[in-house]
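Incident review: delayed structure delivery

Summary: a single-chain prediction request sat in the queue longer than the usual turnaround. Root cause was a stuck worker, restarted by the on-call engineer. No data loss occurred. The affected request and its eventual output are reproduced below so the record is complete for anyone auditing the incident later.

Affected input:
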Amino acid sequence: MRTHVTDLATVRNLGILAHVDAGKTTVTERILYATGTTHKRGEVHDGTTVTDFDPQERDRGITIFAAAVSCAWAGHRINLIDTPGHVDFADEVERSLRVLDGAVAVFDAVAGVEPQSESVWRQADRYGVPRIAFVNKLDRAGADLDRAVDSIRERLHPAPLVVQLPIGTEGDFTGVVDLVHMCALVRDDDAGGGTAVQAPVPEALRQEALRRRRTLEEAVAELHPAALEEFCDRETLSAATLAACLRDLTRTGDGVVVLCGSAYRDRGIEPLLDAVVAYLPSPLDVPAVRGVHEGAEQRRAADPEAPFAALAFKVNASGTGRLTCVRVYSGTIGKGDTVWDPGTGRTERVARIVRLMADRHVQLDRAVAGDIVALAGLKGARAGSTLCDPGAPLLLERPVVAEPVVSVAVEARRATDSGRLATALARLAEEDPSLVVRTDGETGQTVLSGMGELHLEVAVEKIRRDGGPEVSVGRPRVAHRETVERGVGGLVFRHVKQDGGAGQFAHVVLDVEPLTGEPGATGFEFRSTVVGGRVPQEYVRAVEAGCRDALSEGPLGGHPVTGLRVTLTDGSTHVKDSSDTAFRTAGRLGLREALRACAMVLLEPVAEVTVTVPEDAVGGVLGDLAARRGRITGSEHRGGAAVLTATVPLAELFGYATRLRSRTQGRGTFTTRPAGYAAAPQAQAQSPSPSHSVAAR
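Output delivered after worker restart:
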């Protein structure tokens, strides 16, 4: 069994991260081809890629669902997840990053760091995932490696360590110079067949390569003590020292190795694979996973002989069965074994274990620590569930699930299909935790909430394509919030109830104030300044729980309340009638009364919009953004086009893609990313919350 611990050193679990259309899926396809996993290059525009296998992905030409594949390179097993690049599917990226040991961030050599590139980078920061960068599309007109690296440095703030120099520019791009080993890797044929050929550095690039090698050595010496010592002694770094230090800096996050190439033309893929093996960590190199059991923290190392522990990060539910994708952190699992889900408190039996190849499966007898596999036969496990050895319980931290910001009302067109629709919606929510299904208390309508207009459109289309009922969909609506603009102090509330038997008594004095000075801040803070034991500590906790209960509905329109601080300043108790229940009720009703006395502001979600348009269409696009209550925050010229950045209310962006196409004759594109909340117009704040009307599309 101990041989498996050695095998773990040859495993790499990584994701491909990027902005939409930066080339993630093409990079994945070329990796599969270079490793011999596939024998034909798949193309996004032809709908022949391995990882974009869903019909909607092929129709739309974008990645929607994270897809796992596995391949082998240089004696290493690479488990790879191709993640979506569109902001509406950021939750798929979040859940994937939770189980990955490393990542390759792909950047467009023309556009550099784009909005969603920055978002996924921050997501990886939260989970401490080491990354290397691949600047793609160097064969495009306007491609510039140095400009892309500058944008990485300025917008993402790592120390970029460029280890390659491109040979040729734009259409003449033929390969790269490896600055670590000072050799060239080129392809002679324009079609990109065969493998890269190692050759001497071209004479025309030799001085530039030496200069960049020196810059790389100096940058590494500044960041790594061992490199600094050798650099001071020898005034240079050996290839072995440079590679070892780059590996250390990548794994600590103090530096980011930057490679370059063109995935479409198959340039730079083999060096990228070599960098994955050389610099990104194995399961043995990452810290032991942390979990809790009965309130005590425990750690599980990546050891096949340790008790079994795994985290489910994705569920594929269909009419023919469920596959639960898991990352095995410790132990070994075999077919027929029983696992325990501490979240639900139930045991489940593993019927089959498969290694995923997108929509194809390879049967396995068992999986060990470090594996990413799918388990069949689990009925209750959901994305975020922990699976562990029943004899060694452990609860792992769940991935963060984003809060939905857009809702639509849905109903079956035929009353007899209501049951089928409920089943289809439950399956959607089971597969994607960022989709929320609820029933509107006022109208009785079924409301589907998600991360954006495209997210909901894909979900409804999935119902239709999976044989579900015909569905009518209402206008998209955004999720508003309410906050305190001007608070109140010293609000006294007494909860007294006497109806025979033990009564209820609670007296609280509350101060309510904005959390910060700016409308749009989110969060809730509770504190107590009560002295002299006038309100015992256990009742203080009950008051806080009651205040949190009151945040679910605000006085303006019944929206959740955020961005406020509540201070319990005084109170009193009754020797017999005071209880946790009484003080919780006092906290809830007292805060509701206080909010009615406060000056409240309605908040609406806003998005940062990046619009790329031809120079001659800038005026019309700016006018349209202004009409949508957009606030321009930046503009620049890039590759013959204008790039405009604006903050726009999310509600104003519904249908914007069609309007932008018409204003730019189809030449304009835009991307969005969430930018928090901002105060809504006063007229909107005073209007009652409208119901979700349903209109057939």
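Verification: DSSP finds 17 helices and 38 strands in the chain.
Action items: add queue-age alerting; document worker restart procedure.
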